[in-house]
Write a structure and sequence with these properties.
The complex is a heterodimer of chains A (1141) and B (74). In chain A, helix 17 runs parallel beside helix 20 and helix 53 crosses helix 56. Chain A has a two-stranded antiparallel ribbon with strand order 1-2. By secondary structure, chain A is mainly α. Chain A is 67% helix and 0% strand. Chain A is built from 64 helices and two strands. In chain A, a hairpin with a 6-residue loop joins strand 1 and strand 2. The chains are: A mainly alpha (1141), B mainly alpha (74). At the A-B interface, helix 26, helix 30, helix 33 and helix 36 of A face helix 1, helix 2, helix 3 and helix 4 of B. Chain A: This is Ribosome biogenesis protein Urb1. Chain A: One of its GO terms (biological process) is maturation of LSU-rRNA from tricistronic rRNA transcript (SSU-rRNA, 5.8S rRNA, LSU-rRNA).
Chain lengths: 1141, 74
């Protein structure tokens, strides 16, 4: 016993020694035939010989792979050998390469490392070679089948669990397994993974035996880890989704996989990332839970560590590829909902912590108190769905790495709920201005975060319909927490252009985002909801508390040097946004903008300064002018010295000069708009023409005459503009003279779109300036004036304008200067191309033309559109004809309908005949074998009984006839939606009241028989009702029972389809054809007002005309005297207004 | 093609914006370059930070500035 113990004790050491020797002396011989190989590989307990055989086989296989020598011969030897050793019988227990397998198993038992290794090496090589050759694959599959048999599995397991220093055994085994998994498209992958007790033995450990543990120390040779990783990745690649799920549920495998990823060679890292992405994350069949478990914060952090991946032995481009790939990978994981990590979230509505609680909250949604209380609760943290991402976000360093910043903002965009959560949880990092890269990085990250648009419906449609998101969270999305008033003021300080520039940009972004948020609060149904308007007010208040006062912004703007055009432009834009979005803050500062825009004007016109960045300066000017538009104290027309030496001039004129100068590339829409608004406000020009003709004339003058000549016109214009603006009443009186001279009526004055005070001022001032002007100046002046008046005239001429022009002509004639005739000058349409102002004007003009072109709908067209002939001629022959027909023919051929129609005949005898025949017909049908005979019999009998009392006195009510005829169609078709209603109506009462419309009430006021058939029923009803309205008696029923009211109410349904609406209009038209129909409709049912409302609401020009024509018809056919008295002449006014439109 | 021309306009505007910003903030940028935490790798980040504001200009504004700049240079 003692002896055995001692052998066992040093057994391991002895193996190690022996293994070292055998490992170092591998022998082998060249193989020439399959038989020789078979002999060499015959099972032998002598491990040296076994190794010799395996080594010889390996040499052959190496040659095949490397292509040394004659590859096809060598391949032939292999084929021959494989055929020779093929098992005799096929079946699950057949063992391929039985000798090698046995040797391996024996070696494993005696712990003979060399053979254990060589067997795995050889098998891996064989699988590798046969996988390329179609006819050999079957042998490969046989080998795989043998591998998953118990004995081989034990050998595999033994190999894999070898001491971690024995990589020469572990690595080939992992290679063998990889080859086996990937053979023939993964045919055995599932079985190999299923046998994971053996095949995955020590995989976790093997995945962590890196280069350091590799005894070979040979950089060319892959480490155990590399082989283990490749095996694992192959499993993922070749398994189906179910297999992958099973594999991933293995504890910690992914953690082992990523543990050392930072020290892996680049190619392996790329392979790992690619496979994980393609075969796990992008696999939609793997459930979110499994993915979520695999990619926890720890795993994500390991991949994040690859951002700083280094590898001294690899080229820099490879290292960069790893970094880039890791970034793409994380971007994918963190932003793609399908990847399983990003959870669907509810945007700016925080996660509801307790479902029941939230339902209660929803019930109390109208309680404002509850909402205010709720807001405060988020000061301790915002609950989120994406807690893993929230945890991961906190580990990122967006201020020091651009990729971190990109990743984090992408995460924010994918899950906006994280924004408020992130800043609330990470308050330690302040935004105190410092001129360091970290500050710049943080500023850049904050800016990118602010650029993320607000999600539609604030991220959750359901809760959006209930109420606004918490103010605090919305505010944090607009203006991230680190940006508080104190910090922003410090950033704006004049000490640093850079911090002030960055802070200005951020504030612009915040204000623009705020205006979007406010708009979302005020659109559609929310406009009238107190809950939303209250929330909007709270948001603005909270926002204003977080941003600097206007005076800080003004101070910052003032401190920017004038040559910093971009910075000044941004600052002026910020000022403008204050005025536009939070005027309550802006107006409190009492900021006088005029000196600033004068200085910008100066720099634009100053010849000596640098003009390359005038684009920015013009933008700044536009902003300032727009601000001036908001400032009530702006003095547009007081003259100041803008450019020294050129004399005083009003800011308004200076800006006009700028606008009309020809070398402007920028369209300056904003500037034009503000100037035109000012001009209209001061009554210089009419609201109809605005400044367009004036600018056209200026631009053309600048083209036609030299700038020196033009300089003589400007003071005159400036003078006229100022006079006009300062004493408008005086010129209004003069204007009145021109108009009253004309004896025009008020209507024509309103039409006079071109007339304005400026023209009057020009005419009045002209004689004074002429006295002091030389010939050159006069010609320039006449040129401009003729252009201006022609432009006005082209827009729309008037007699008053002509009169003013003739006065001007007289003045020029006194100095013998010839003036071109009014409208003689050509004004090209595109003279001030591309301006929005112009376009708007042009559109107006075109609209007018369209209006003129439109032909009104006349009586004939109206009749064509709406008139339905009263009835078909009486067919008395039917009284005899029907007897000869069978019941089915009666039903199908419409003979019943024709017979019923005879009840409406004027002749009593025909009506009586018809009644008798109907009763006979009913009896005939009842006796027949026709399937729906009872209903037909019932209908005809009820009709006959209801008509009997009426027949002698006159035509029976059209309603009876119309109902019966239309009901016939329904009874023929049991699938008709009205079938049940008609049947129940027929069984209700044997006689119909002549004072009622049969079934009408059931359709119009009852529930539809099927939910989606309402409109089908209405369509049937409207057709029937039209036929039921033929005589004054019918009209009286419609009137007494208020059916018109109900029909018009039906027509007010905005969702009514066009064809139904037309049917209603047809009924109205039919009523106007009946005596006193129009009068009844107008005086009793307010028809004209109804039509007018429909006309205004419809928006389609053709329909508008239709309504107009119908109104005229109603008016023409009514008792006009009565209607006039009834309406106290209101109807005429209504029609008059309508014609004017 | 309009998309391409749009992109190229954006690219040229971004370049102009960057150039302008760099020039106007040159003094402070020097201080940043001398700061302790400034590394070679920081350059792309700095460029990104300066340039990101170009997105705040609309296409028509960008076009106007570019045209004016070309006119005045040419």
């Amino acid at each position: 016993m003692g002896k055995r113990t001692s052998v066992d004790a040093d057994g391991a050491a002895a193996f190690r020694k022996r293994q070292k020797i055998t490992h170092d002396v591998p022998t082998g011989e060249d193989v020439n035939t399959g038989e020789q190989l078979q002999r060499l590989l015959a099972f032998d307990q002598d491990m040296r010989r076994a190794r010799h055989g395996l080594q010889s086989f390996k040499r052959l296989l190496d040659k095949i792979i490397s292509g040394d020598g004659d590859r096809s011969t060598n391949l032939g030897i292999l084929r021959e050998y494989l055929e020779l050793v093929k098992p005799r019988h096929e079946g699950d227990d057949a063992v391929f390469l039985g000798d090698i397998m046995e040797m391996w198993s024996f070696a494993a038992q005696v712990n003979e490392g060399g053979v254990m290794s060589s067997a795995a090496v050889v098998l891996a090589l064989v699988l590798n070679i046969v996988s390329d050759s179609l006819d050999l694959v079957k042998h490969g599959l046989g080998i795989c089948q043998s591998l998953v048999q118990d004995r081989q599995l034990k050998s595999i397991s033994k190999n894999l669990s070898s001491d971690k220093t024995k990589s020469f055994i572990i690595s080939p085994t992992l290679r063998l397994l990889r080859e086996a998994v990937s053979l023939d498209g993964g045919a055995y992958a599932r079985k190999i993974v299923r046998a994971r007790t053996y095949t995955f033995a020590s995989l976790g450990r093997n995945l962590e035996i890196g280069v350091a543990g590799d005894s070979q120390g040979d950089s060319g040779k892959a480490s155990v880890r590399t082989n283990a990783v490749r095996f694992f990745l192959s499993c993922l690649r070749y398994l189906h989704s179910d297999g992958r799920k099973e594999l991933l549920s293995q504890k910690e495998l992914l953690s082992h996989l990523t543990f050392m990823i930072k020290s892996d060679p680049p190619a392996l890292v790329l392979e790992i990332l690619d496979t994980l992405k393609t075969h796990i994350l992008a696999d939609s069949k793997i459930s979110r839970d499994i993915k979520f478990k695999c990619f926890n914060t720890k795993t994500l952090m390991r991949i994040l560590a690859l951002y700083t991946y280094t590898n001294s032995s690899e080229a820099e481009s490879e290292v960069d590829r790893v970094t880039e790939k890791a970034h793409q990978f994380l971007m994918y994981v963190c932003t793609q909902p399908g990847a399983g990590i990003l959870y669907p979230s509810t945007g700016l509505y925080p996660k509801e912590t307790d479902e029941e609680f939230s339902v209660q909250l929803a019930k109390q949604k109208s309680s404002a108190h509850g909402i205010v209380g709720k807001d405060d609760t988020y000061r301790d943290g915002v609950p989120v769905y994406n807690f893993v991402l929230s945890e991961f976000a906190a580990k990122l360093r967006p201020w020091s790495s651009m990729k971190h910043s990109e990743l984090l903002t992408a995460m924010f965009e994918a899950a906006p709920e994280l924004i408020a959560n992130y800043f609330l949880n990470n308050q330690s990092f302040t935004f105190e201005p410092k001129l360091t890269m970290t500050w710049i990085g943080y500023a850049s990250f904050l800016f990118d975060t602010m650029r993320i648009p607000l999600p539609p419906s604030f991220g959750d449609k359901t809760r959006f319909s209930r109420g606004p998101p918490p103010t605090q969270i919305l505010l944090d999305n607009i203006l991230p927490l680190p940006l508080n008033q104190r910090v922003i003021i410090r950033c704006l300080s004049p000490n640093s252009n850079l911090t002030s520039f960055f802070a200005t940009r951020m504030l612009i972004e915040a204000l623009e985002k705020l205006s979007v948020a406010i708009k979302l609060h005020e659109d559609a149904f929310r406009a009238t909801d107190a809950q939303w308007s209250e929330a909007a007010r709270r948001l603005i208040d909270a926002f204003c508390r977080r941003i600097p006062d206007m005076k800080e912004i003004v101070r910052s703007y003032k401190s920017i040097a004038s040559e910093n055009a971009l910075h000044k432009t941004m600052a002026s834009r910020l000022l403008l946004l204050y005025y536009e979005i939070i005027p309550q803050v802006a107006l409190a500062a009492n900021f006088d903008v005029s000196p600033f825009f004068v200085s910008v004007l100066r720099s634009l016109q100053d010849e000596s300064s640098d003009h390359q960045h005038d684009g920015f300066r013009e933008m700044e000017l536009e902003n300032l002018v727009s601000i001036a538009g908001y400032s009530p104290g702006m003095r547009w027309f007081s003259r100041i010295e803008i450019i020294s030496g050129e004399g005083p001039c009003s800011p308004f004129t200076a800006l006009l000069k700028l606008l009309s100068s020809s070398d402007r590339a920028a369209p300056l829409h904003q500037l034009k708009k503000v100037l035109a608004d000012v001009a209209v406000e001061n009554q210089l020009v009419s609201a109809a023409t605005r400044l367009k003709p004036f600018l056209q004339a200026l631009t053309m003058s600048m083209d036609e005459i030299s700038s020196e000549e033009m300089e003589k016109v400007w003071p005159f214009l400036d003078n006229c503009l100022s006079r006009c603006a300062t004493s408008p009443i005086k010129y209004l009186d003069v204007l009145q003279n021109y108009l009253t001279d004309d004896n025009v009526d008020v209507q024509a004055t309103a039409d006079d779109r071109s007339f304005n005070l400026l023209t009057v001022a020009i005419a009045e001032q002209l004689p004074f300036i002429m006295e002091s002007t030389d010939a050159q100046g006069l010609s320039a002046l006449s040129n401009f004036i003729s252009l201006y008046f022609s432009a006005l005239y082209k827009k729309k001429g008037s007699d008053a304008l002509k009169r003013v022009y003739s006065k001007i002509e007289e003045s020029f004639a006194s100095r013998s200067v010839k003036l071109a005739g009014l409208g003689k000058r050509k004004i090209p349409k595109s003279i001030t191309s591309g301006s929005q102002e112009d376009e708007k004007d042009d559109e107006e003009g075109e609209d007018q033309n369209n209006g003129e072109k439109q032909t009104t709908m006349d009586e004939g067209k109206l009749e064509e559109a709406l008139h339905i002939p009263f009835s078909s001629p009486e067919d008395t022959a039917v009284l005899l004809r029907w007897h000869a027909k069978g019941v089915e023919d009666l039903v199908e051929d419409g003979l019943i309908a024709n017979l019923i129609r005879l009840l409406a005949s004027e002749h009593t005898n025909i009506r009586k005949e018809a009644l008798t025949n109907i009763l006979k017909m009913a009896a005939k049908i009842d006796e027949s074998s026709y399937e729906e005979k009872k209903q037909f019999w019932l209908l005809l009998s009820e009709l006959a009984e209801s008509s009997r009392p009426q027949v002698d006195s006159g035509p029976i009510p059209s309603a009876f006839i119309a109902f019966s005829i239309h009901a016939l169609d329904v009874l023929k078709n049991p699938l008709h939606p009205l079938y049940p209603k008609i049947n129940s109506f027929l069984t209700r009462s044997p006689v119909w009241s002549p004072e009622k419309l049969p079934l009408a009430h059931d359709i119009l006021h009852g529930e539809p028989s099927e939910d989606d058939k309402y409109y089908t029923e209405i369509a049937w009803f409207l057709t029937y009702i039209l036929d039921a309205l033929k005589t004054p008696f019918d009209l009286s029923i419609f009137h007494k029972k208020r059916w018109f009211e109900k029909i018009l109410a039906l027509g007010s349904n905005p969702y009514l389809r066009a064809n139904l609406r037309t049917r209603i209009l047809r009924i109205i038209y039919r009523a106007t054809c009946i005596d006193s129909g129009s009068t009844t409709l107008i005086t009793r049912f307010g028809l004209l007002a109804w039509l007018d409302a429909q006309r205004v609401a419809c928006g389609v020009p053709e329909d508008t005309e239709l309504y107009k024509a119908l109104m005229s018809r109603a008016w023409k056919t009514c008792d006009q005297a009565r209607v006039k008295t009834w309406s106290k002449n209101g109807v005429e006014k209504l029609l008059g207004d309508m014609q004017l439109q | 093609m309009p998309q391409n021309s749009n992109q190229s306009q954006q690219a040229s505007f971004s370049a102009l914006y960057l150039q302008r910003a760099t020039q106007e903030l040159s003094e402070d940028l020097d201080k940043i370059r001398n700061a302790d935490d400034f590394k070679v790798e920081s350059v792309p980040f700095l460029v990104h930070a300066l340039q990101q504001g170009a997105q705040q200009f609309s296409a028509s504004q960008q076009n106007a500035v570019l045209k004016t700049s070309e006119n005045r240079q040419g």
